[in-house]
Amino acid sequence: MMPKRALLSPRTASSTLKTPLWSSSYKNIEARLTDQEGRSRREIIRIHGVKEGSEDNYLSISVENLLKEKLGLPLSFDFKIERAHRALASRPPHASPPRSIVVKLLQFTDKEELIKIAWQKKGFIYEGRKVFLDQDYAPEVLRKHKEYTEAKKTLRENKIHFQMPFPARLRVFYWEETCIYNTAEEAMKDMAVRGLLVTVVKPAENWIEKIKRQTWQTG
Length: 219
Prior knowledge:
This protein is an alpha+beta fold. 44% of the residues lie in helices and 16% in strands. Strand 4 and strand 5 form a beta hairpin. The longest helix has 31 residues.
């Protein structure tokens, strides 16, 4: 009797041979789409924490005045806003966190400078709320950022400085060296080897892996 692994139908055998090829192709496509979407958001920042209804009818002007005042921007920094609006979602209940404000600037360099200043000041307080600025990340990048949650928590608890280079990497400044990780799984494995108390969590299954798994199930 032949081993079960040898009893493959022509369809299954064909899928087995092709899977690495189309898996690699789809990964390249996914990377390109994520990069393209990221480039389309290059001039956009998100402002989190501004109370709903605190702005007037001219949101762009309200945002410009808010940033100039709270960030203490020099008069020479004359940035221009193309448009500004609340995140496209239903207005939340009164006690819930407010929707972010999406701000499209005319110049990418102005966005980078605003983000830099806001991060240096660690945000600001406005109408009794903590307000901070962040990049406008693509959904796939946000998913990857979320995977670093436990790693970042452990680093903060151990007072180890870190950064999140674009699009979704982790740069950690250990006492003896600086390391850059491309995935959360890679970061947590190395942190565990270094003696940090962290649980190595396998990243969530992406759409490519789901297709690959379904191919094996239906082959």
